[in-house]
Specification:
The complex is a heterodimer of chains A (97) and B (250).
Chain A: H1 8-29, H2 37-57, H3 65-91
Helix pairs in contact in A: 1-2
Chain B: H1 25-60, H2 62-71, H3 74-99, H4 103-133, H5 170-206, H6 216-241
The chains are: A mainly alpha (97), B mainly alpha (250).
Chain lengths: 97, 250
């Protein structure tokens, strides 16, 4: 697998995606969505922005499987840390101690 | 193949930057990239712990977190977000120009990235100074200046004061500021380290150390810089924007 060169027009396109995402997240923050939707919208935009940075600025789209595996393992263990900790804290009030 | 035979290098003369334990430049570059990603995994887990602490305390004290977040300067936060995104773009361009051997352009992009990074840190310092003036530095981090913000009374609209909804404790606002300073402080430390790495890379570029065949250090520095940008992409909405939609109800 030889090195893949990402050309400036791709970088410029990603740059505009990130700028639009930033404007959208600020605008959305001032709208009063029902329930926890504000946090959901903000995090969705952040995840989309981060994905574009990882795939294009960090060349992961053109990287080998080993790099994908390493990133997937990071997200997997991050999910374990969040899931187990949050399930602990959110269920503590279920049983009187 | 017996050792000592340079048959693996016979297509091109071995590049001077090729370490003896690698077969060729491509294998060396890929190994370096993979190693950097493994390091970034540890960084993801490190920042992940702080994001988890943020999640738990926000879940516990939603009113205090929204009020404290609304007190942050959204304009400076948004400007810094834009500054970091532009710096990520110039970093990506520094990698590209190095890959195609445009040394002068790559030096300009590296300097631009460093200047933008310093601009970010400068704006962050202005924000920290405001927090100092408003006595919003948590605990006794600054000796003689404990956490003691002015809380607005009912009907007072002075934006310099802290506006708390009914039943919200200023102690829980302090918790937000612990997390705010821990996360933005660690992020700023990463930026400062990034500036140092970038300076080394810049000096190497000026000394003509990089070429289309050898530019892994620039690429790996780029990975680090973009990672720090991603951390901010999450910090900005979580710290600065989370309570804005509730401002009318406070």
């Amino acid at each position: 697998m030889s090195e893949h060169i990402v050309y400036p027009r791709v970088y410029i396109a990603i740059f505009f995606v990130l700028m639009v995402g930033t404007v959208l997240t600020v605008l959305a923050a001032f709208q009063d969505f029902p329930g926890p939707l504000n946090a959901v919208v903000a995090l969705t935009i952040a995840v989309i922005k981060a994905t574009f940075v990882v795939l294009y600025f960090m060349h992961v789209r053109y990287s080998g499987r080993l790099v994908w595996l390493v990133i997937a393992s990071a997200l997997f263990w991050l999910a374990i840390m969040f899931a187990l900790t949050i399930s602990d804290y959110s269920s503590r009030s279920w049983m009187p101690i | 193949m017996p050792e000592g035979l340079a048959t693996t290098h016979d297509e091109h003369a071995a590049h001077s930057a090729l370490q003896h334990h690698f077969e060729n430049m491509e294998q060396q570059r890929e190994a370096g990239t993979l190693g950097m990603w493994v390091f970034l995994v540890t960084e993801i887990m490190f920042f992940g712990g702080m994001f988890l602490a943020y999640t738990l305390y926000r879940y516990k004290y939603p009113g205090a977190f929204a009020a404290a977040s609304n007190h942050l300067d959204i304009k400076l936060g948004a400007i810094n977000t834009v500054v970091l995104i532009v710096s990520s773009f110039t970093m990506a361009m520094a990698v590209f120009t190095t890959q195609v051997g445009r040394r002068k352009a790559s030096i300009i992009y590296l300097i631009a990235t460093m200047v933008l990074g310093l601009a970010f840190l400068g704006i962050k310092a202005v924000e920290y100074r405001e927090k100092y003036h408003d006595s919003l530095i948590p605990g006794q981090l600054i000796p003689g200046r404990p956490f003691n913000p002015e809380v607005a009374k009912h009907g007072d609209t002075d934006p310099k004061k802290l506006h708390l909804p009914e039943g919200v404790s200023v102690r829980h606002v302090e918790m937000f500021y612990w997390i705010y300073f821990a996360m933005t402080g660690m992020h700023a430390l990463h930026m400062i380290i990034g500036e140092g790495i970038m300076l080394v890379i810049l000096i190497m570029a000026v000394r003509r150390r990089f070429s289309p065949e050898y530019h892994a250090p620039v690429e790996i520095t780029g990975l680090y810089w973009h990672f720090v940008d991603i951390v901010w992409i999450f910090l900005f909405p979580l710290l600065y924007l989370l309570g804005r939609h509730m401002e009318g109800h406070m």
